[in-house]
Each structure stands twice: as C-alpha cells, then as structure tokens.
Amino acid sequence: KTRTLRDQISAAETEQPGTANVLPLLCHFPRQFDQFVARKAEVTAVTRHILNPDCTLLNLLGPGGIGKTRLSIQAARHLDARHAALFRANFPNGCYFVPLADAANRDQLITAVGEALNLVFQPAEPPEQQLLRYLAEQKLLLVLDNFEQLTPAAGFIADLLNDAPQVKLLVTSREPLNLRAEWRLPLEGLSYANEAVEPGSHNEAAELFLQTARRIRPAFQPDAAARRQIGRICQLTRGMPLAIQLAASWTRVADCATIAAEIERNLDFLATTMQDMPLRHRSMRAVFASSWQRLSPTEQKRLAQSSIFTGGFNLQAALFVLEGSVLELSALLDKSLLQRSENGRYHLHPLLRQFAAEKLAESGAETIRQTGERHSAYYLTAIATQETTLAQAQSSADWQMARVEADNIRRAWEWAAAHSAWPLILKAADGVALLYQLRGLFQEGGTLFAKTAVRA
Question: What are phi and psi of 168, to 5 degrees?
C-alpha cells in the first residue's frame, strides 16, 4: 500500500507544467502574505500521511511559533496544486481550514467547523447531530488549527471519524489528542548552520530572516560581519520561524549584532506591532504565556525549575533536581515545552528557558535555594565519584557523561561557591580540575578556581 502511494505521488510529480491547475482549486484557506520558506521534507511527510488510507487523523505537534499552521496550509495547497488528480480523487468535496484559537469547548468547536463549511444549523435538532450527518456524506479534508485548548473535547473527533469515514483530519496542536486514530508528526525549527551565513548556502532559518528583512528594507544586503550575526540569531532562536521573523523585523532600526545581543538579554525584544498578527503571536512572551496558563501549578513549578539546567539534562538528573516524576516530565513533553533528543537528553528551547528562568525567580527564595542546592549536589557529587575513571580513559562512559554535562558542572560549582558549600567544593575539586585538564581548558579552569579562592 505504501509503495503504491509513493508511486502515485512520484507520478504526480512528473505532471507536465501547467496541468496541475486545470481544475479550480478546492482549498478553502486564508490568504498568506509571505512566501513559504523551505520545509520540503516536512511538506512531503504531511502529504504522504494525508494520502495514506490508514491515516485518518494526523496531528502536527510543536510549540507555539514553530510554524504548524503555515505548514498545514502549505501541505494542503501543495497537494491541490502539484497533485491535482490525486487530491480530487481523495477529497472531491474540498479542503477546509477551521481556526480554533478562540474556541474553548465542544460546542464552540462544532460551531467553528460548521462556519468553515458554510453550514446553517436548524434549531429543531442539536448542531452536533446535523454536522455529523452532513459530514457522513462528504469526502473531504478538514484542517483543525490550534486544537490544544480543546483536548478535553477530543471525544467529538472520535465521533466524527466513526460517523464520517471518508473525512480526514489534519490537526495542529501543542498537545496530542490521545486518540487511537491519531498519527503524530512532531515539528521542529527550520534548519540552520552553526557558522556564518554564506550566500547560496542551504540555511532555511537564514533564508526566512533575509526574506522578512527585505520586506521591510528592500535593499538589505548583509556584509560578512552581519552574516555571522544572522547565523548567531538563527542559533539563538533554534530556527523557530516566529522568533526569526520577529528578530528580522528589527532590522529597520538596528544592526544584526545588536539584534543578537538583545535576544540574549531580553525576551521582550522579540515582539511586533503588526496589527494583523494574532495577539498570541505578537511576541514570544505571549506565545510562552499562553502555554504557561494551560499548565497545572505543579507543571508550572517543574518547568520553572528546569531552567536551572544548562546544555540539557538526563532523566536521572531531572528526577533528583526537580523532585518530580516521569509522568510530570511526560506532561511537559506532551505540551511541546520540553524536547527529548535521540540520545535521551531533555532540552528547553533557549527562549523558553529565559521565560522559565523568570518564573523561577518569581517562585520565592526557598524554591530557588532548594533547586540550586539539589542541582549543585547532584552534579558535583557525580563528578567527584567519577574522578578515578576520568583519569583512566577519556573513552569511558564517565568521561563522555562529564564532557556532555560540563556546563551543568560549571554552574553547580559556581552555585556552591556563591553559597559557601565548601565541603561539596572540596569533595569535587579534583574531579572538576581533571575535567578541565582533559578538555584542554586550562585557562578557563584556572579562572574558575581563582574566583572560588577569592570567595573562600
């Protein structure tokens, strides 16, 4: 079945120019005013899922500002424009975009779907029954955008899929729906390089930055120094499309070096005054605040505490330092606030980490002290117990762990020194010194020990 689907898509890709749009477009979507940048692999992945007969519900998952809405629109339009015959065979009744950012419950969800389909509900019968009866006779694609606040109403989605077997759903959400029919496609930031942006290089994040900047300043042509700073901006934002667009909008008043420095210094810098931008997307703070408000008090505390880690952390560290549970970490993962890499390490987006650190600072002196104390104890105890194996072989598992955790170890040491935790400092001193020696960072290590000696 999969091979057949791939053959169909490949055949459609070879259609003669001009044949894809012979029939009128069937996508009923809002107009987009910017050019879609890259994401070729993601568009292809969404396309294949939509055309897969086994996939009736695809959920594009990711944090706010990652580009879920834009990708869903582009993928549907790509199907309509590039694979017209396939699109019309699968969805002869069209494709409809349903904005759900303002819907708060099941009734409002049903109303929003009805409005997108231009249905007029009659008072004699519940709207839900009317909608399900109508959809039972349709063969179409519904794009349900911004579903995260409606997850308690996901039962309606299950009813819809049962009653309307020829309807497919493409959902964008910060959270999974937790339905058996759900296929999940996590979305990450645009690709970016870890060096200066060079002309003609494949760098999706930089391409979006340049496109946005040139809409504001048509003559924007960055020199070599500015290209290095654009590369830095892409790293600081981890390729998040909304953050990149907000950063690029500042090229009207600031150079790229200033923009990068402000992103590191102040989360509120990433904001816009564009009146046609949704309120939830007018600043990165608004994006993070909307996610924060949907967390339970315990989840809020765990997210704030997780900002103490630098360079990521593993499960054991999280359970000790945060005093949380695997279920609590799983909840933050499901809400697209934590990411888990292939090597099992957890990460916060650097911009979200700024926001979470502010929340930790607001949580009270006792919470701050306890979190710092546990973080310091965990990492300095770990490096102290690994001293012997560190000295024996740089290829050992302990050496690899210490190298990966170097940023956390340095922060743990600095906290202990600032709070006069001298027994812990003395216990870990040889291991920390050996770590800096093995990494060849003699000057950095010497500076760290000198600053500590001054405090003693």
Answer: -115, 150
Dihedral pair phi/psi, residue 57, rounded to 5°: -140, 110
Contact assessment for residue 376 and residue 412, using Cβ atoms and an 8 Å cutoff: yes
Strands 57-61 and 346-347 come out as: unpaired
* Rounded (10°) angle between helices 442-455 and 422-438: 170
Residue with tokens 């090229």: 251
> Token pair for residue 214?
């040139």
Containing 346, the helix (H) or strand (E) segment is strand 346-347
Task: Return d(Cα 371, Cα 94) in angstroms, integer.
Answer: 53
For the entire predicted model, the pTM comes to 0.84
- Tell me: pLDDT of 275 over 70: yes
Closest Cα to residue 356, out of 303, 314, 291?
Answer: 303
Token duo for residue 396:
């050992």
The pLDDT tens digits for 197-230 are 665 566 899 999 999 999 989 999 999 999 999 9
Mean per-residue pLDDT, 161-174 = 96
Least Cα distance to 153 among 125, 113, 184, 188 occurs for: 113
**Alpha-carbon distance 408 to 289, whole Å?**
27
In 82-123, DSSP assigns E strands to: 95-99
Q: What's the pLDDT at 15?
A: 40
Q: What is the spatial distance between Cα 10 and Cα 181, in angstroms, rounded to a whole number?
A: 27
Interstrand relation of 346-347 and 168-173 (parallel, antiparallel or unpaired): unpaired
Taking CB atoms within 8 Å and a gap of at least 24, the contacts of 113-116 are 113/142, 113/144, 116/28, 116/142
